[in-house]
Amino acid sequence: MRGLMMDTPLLITSIMRHAQRNFADRELVSVTSDNPRHRYTYGECFQRAAQLANALARLNLKPGDRVGTLAWNDYRHLEIYYAAACSGLICHTINPRLFEEQLVYIINHAEDRVLLTDPLFIPLLEKLVDRIKGVEQFVVLSGQQELADCELPNVVTYEEFIRGEPEQFAWPDLDENTAAGLCYTSGTTGNPKGVLFSHRSSVLHAYAICLPDVMCLSARDAMLPVVPMFHVNAWGLPYACPMIGAKIVFPGAKMADGPTLHALFEEEAVTISAGVPTVWLVLLEHLRANDAVLTHLQRVVVGGAACPKSIMEEFQNRHSVWVHHAWGMTEMSPVGTYNTLKPGMEVFTDEERWQVRAKQGRGMYGVEMKITDDDDNELPWDGKAFGALKVRGPWVCSDYYRLEGESDAHDADGWFETGDVATIDAEGFMQITDRTKDVIKSGGEWISSIELENTAVGHPAIHEAAVIGVAHPKWLERPLLVAVKKPDAEVTKEEILEFMTGKVAKWWLPDDVLFVDELPHTATGKLNKRGLRQQLVDYRFE
Ligand code: AMP
């Protein structure tokens, strides 16, 4: 027998309508290229989203067409999120830090028809424009930007684009499984892969991250997302905040700028913030140097990479801010686990509590986890056994965009293989211990070890090369190139690095090169990266 309840679709449009009705006066503050402190309300935001939807409709886009963004965290980016998704288009957020080849690949693979860009990226796009011919309209996210010298074809400013458009739009009744957002991840080998979020997955994920034992978001909060809106929808915050009426403070391009962040945190009375570990190092250093203390901030969510204990301690001891460790992936919308203590843990000693808080957290309702051994047997939750971490749930991807059926990211039972290796303890706290995927995460951004290895072996003196991530105090992980020279060949570290320069993004270049007589291999002859990481466990950059 079926239940007799309404089958109301879970649409991002419903978040927008709810915020318009209930939180129309709630403030949104942004740093943009044309205004150091723009402020307006949810009411105005969604009126302008309707204007943008009308402007996009004039371009004769088809339902499901991709609208690309190369943009920082600010109010115009939020308007694009809602205008695109709620009108049946797909908001494709692009990471501007990617290497040019990858940007071209992603824009073409997604077949973006419109590209909305921050003025800062105009020179970059001018270089790429001949290779991204599918883009029919460029929109520069600014008010009175002078575009006379801009070499992009069909280019207008955002304010020009939406000027005079009606402040209402006939938002379509969509199926809740309609695609809403697209984000490419380079967290695996090969070309970046597109993760295609639906309205339903975005709404459910937003509900989940608001929960008290997750981010505990409420109308009384002011959230400053340092995590970029081009990186998995700023961890879902652009949907969660309007859902509950939290104020949002967007740092624009200044997300790694200590003085700007400090001013925003204090002057806008920010209560909660979220970002990768590296940005917190910058902010804490600035606060220390200026003998300043954060007075409004209560909690910080740190994820994307393991959070060093020193960051948690400094926030707590100097600023009375509680750091919550979280873990997730682009493929998981992204939040999977979140670290809040369970009842009974208040009586723990400091040391015992730190041991729990260093872990990546407990699986939240909606994300099932398991760890398995090499033969796919499930391992116990005893905090000791470690194995491949697999997940499933309504906001975990079932496949990659335009690669349907081609990737081997899911096991036979449909569980998603995260590429992380973890333990799970009896209380359900998961801890990442290693990675099976061969990638390096530097300051929250991926570096492909395989691409570095292929580049290095292109040097005539190199026989074999392996690149592994090594702990780094600022970037948390940086690439180390370990190479075997060809017999009788002579080459120096400097020569190798010079050879690689220009062939990969500058920030990808290895921090050091070690020459060895041989590299470890598996039984099937593959490079044994895990073995190499173990061999070099004590290695430190100078
Ligand atoms: P991305 O898809 O770029 O968000 O990257 C997801 C990957 O980042 C995960 O599979 C992990 O390897 C890593 N990661 C994310 N959060 C954490 C964390 N809290 N601790 C350790 N690694 C993390």
Keywords:
alpha/beta, 7-stranded mixed β-sheet, binds adenosine monophosphate, Rossmann fold, 16 helices, globular, 25 strands
How much strand content do the residues show?
25-35%
| CATH-assigned homologous superfamily of the largest domain | ANL, N-terminal domain
Taking all Cα atoms into account, the compactness measure Rg is 24 Å
Mean pLDDT: 95
| Level-2 CATH architecture of the largest domain | 3-Layer(aba) Sandwich
How is the topology of this model organized?
Elements: H1 12-22, E1 27-32, E2 35-41, H2 42-57, E3 66-70, H3 75-86, E4 90-93, H4 100-110, E5 112-117, H5 122-128, E6 137-140, E7 155-157, H6 158-162, E8 179-185, E9 193-198, H7 199-210, E10 222-225, H8 232-235, H9 237-244, E11 247-250, H10 258-267, E12 272-275, H11 277-289, E13 299-302, H12 309-319, E14 322-328, E15 335-338, H13 350-357, E16 361-363, E17 368-372, E18 387-392, E19 416-424, E20 429-435, E21 439-442, E22 445-448, H14 449-457, E23 462-472, E24 476-485, H15 493-500, E25 512-515, H16 529-535
Parallel strand pairs: 1-11, 3-4, 3-5, 4-8, 5-6, 6-7, 10-11, 10-12, 12-13, 13-14, 24-25
Antiparallel strand pairs: 1-2, 8-9, 14-15, 15-16, 16-20, 17-18, 18-19, 19-20, 21-22, 23-24
Helix pairs in contact: 1-9, 2-3, 7-9, 10-11
The chain binds adenosine monophosphate.
Adenosine monophosphate is lined by residues 185, 187, 232, 303-306, 325-327, 329-330, 334, 360, 418-420, 432, 435, 441.
